[in-house]
Write a structure and sequence with these properties.
single chain; 148 residues; alpha+beta; 3-stranded antiparallel sheet; 4 helices; elongated
Length: 148
């Protein structure tokens, strides 16, 4: 079903290209073959990473902190940066609840280092500031939910 839809759409797109600019059948076949091979390689890499995470989780005497460090290391190896605090990177976070001047990180933000794209926005909760405490997360940009 998916391949049929792809073939139909590819045919439509090729028909829209002027005949003198259309790629040859050989060029189209080579491009499709390359795309399929890259998809298989990507899947193999993903499966290998999932196996590593499973092995890490099943290691003897594993605690939550060492598991988290291992997963973070695997993410970093794949080019994904985890941002645990909004310091200087408020645009990676959104405020999801609360009132006050201090922020608590509910969820870190994840950034693809190769593209700079945000994979998953971090979440902050506003808290009432303890006496004499300042803003723990920086400027009001994150406080206003701006950015993501």
């Amino acid at each position: 079903m998916l391949l049929a839809r792809f073939t139909e759409r590819a045919t439509e797109l090729l028909a829209a290209v002027p005949e003198e600019e259309r790629p040859t059948q050989t060029a189209v076949a080579a491009a499709l073959r390359q795309a399929v091979l890259e998809a298989f390689r990507s899947r193999e890499e993903y499966v290998a990473r999932m196996v590593e995470v499973d092995l890490l989780a099943g290691a003897p005497k594993q605690n939550a902190n060492s598991l988290r460090r291992g997963i973070r290391a695997a993410l970093l190896d794949q080019g994904v940066r985890c941002v645990d605090a909004p310091d200087g990177e408020h645009e990676l976070f959104v405020v999801v609840e609360g009132d006050g001047e201090v922020f608590e990180v509910l969820r870190p933000a994840y950034v693809d280092q190769a593209t700079g794209k945000l994979v998953l926005a971090g979440q902050l909760r506003r808290l009432a500031a303890p006496d004499g405490a300042g803003d723990s997360a920086g400027s009001d940009d994150a406080a206003n939910g701006e950015g993501v």
